[in-house]
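Notes to self, Undecaprenyl-diphosphatase:
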Amino acid sequence: MGELINAVILAFVEGLTEFLPVSSSGHMILTNKLLGYTPDDQRIITFEIIIQLAAILAMAIVYRTRIANLLGLSRRTEVIGKLSAAGRRSSRRLNLIHIALGIVPPLLLAFLLRDIIKGDGFNQLPVLFALVAGGVYMWAAEWLVERGKIATVSETLDDLSYRQAFLIGLLQCLSLWPGYSRSGSTIAGGMLVGASYRAAADFSFIMAIPIMAAATGYELLENYKYIQGDNLTFFLVGFVASFLVAWLVIVIFLRYIQRIKLRHFAIYRFLLAALFWIFVM
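result:
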């Protein structure tokens, strides 16, 4: 029974933090430490892959209509032609080129640096520094936008240009530093290149689906042998719990996004770094 409770705890942490700009990897390292799991426990490594897949599924369901439109599978055509920030009627629409420009830079760099990331990247000190650095980065991006230093030219997802998508993809490479946060780097990065908070968040979440699917799929091929026997119930409980929590978090975050500032997440990251220093270092 204790193992199933641990499965729910880990799945809850994963679902709660995967898509918020607070670093899921930092939270998982801290939670595993508090629960007594070691970093080289292959069963737990495989479990984390499973609950990440559940979080991806939740994201895909939330954005199912947009994904269907991107793939040309939807009969429903969304109304395009809203007024752009410049007052002109825009005919642009998010398409697969935007997604490719956003995901190729981090995927390519992750492939080239995979041994470094999996080796030294998950050491405790780099993660601690990443939590702080990511918080400063997010707070600075929001401050620049609120002070009018950076103009918001893309209010909606369909207003994003190819240039903006590529620049967000480049800034997303910061998330390869474990503890930095993929959503934090992309949401703040989107705001830095002129996207609104909501447009940057939507683009960040949609890009997460192919990126995380590729990463977790690759890792699952290396660890699938641990999904058997007595572990099945442990994995199933974690999958369901992670899916439900991730779905709820995404829906709530998107509903109240304008009230939740990036600096709030930055302050939380600083507090997490302090806990990290006390309990993990």
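- The longest helix spans residues 197-223.
- The chain has twelve helices and no strands.
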